[in-house]
Specification:
- It is a single chain.
- 40% of the residues lie in helices and 16% in strands.
- The chain is of the alpha+beta class and 73 residues long.
- The chain is globular and about 30 Å long.
């Protein structure tokens, strides 16, 4: 759905929020943090995975969340 910004042959499904823009140009890290903070349309439960102190975005769940929430937010 979104184009990768770097040529990375690994197909990672969990990406740390702070490293999101190393793989994808959109949305920005700041926009992701805002979605997490406000929990827009149940974003945290569907997309964010917490492992220890770190927060990760599950790419497949993010793509599904975007498709189901088009024009809602």
């Amino acid at each position: 759905m979104y184009e990768k910004t770097k040529n990375n042959t690994q197909n990672q499904d969990l990406i740390p929020i702070s490293k999101w823009n190393d793989f994808y140009a959109y949305p920005t890290v700041g926009a992701l943090r805002q979605l997490v903070f406000y929990d827009t349309n149940n974003f945290c439960n569907k997309v964010v995975r917490r492992i220890g102190k770190r927060m990760y975005i599950k790419v497949s769940a993010f793509n599904e969340w975007v498709e189901t929430n088009q024009g809602v937010a």
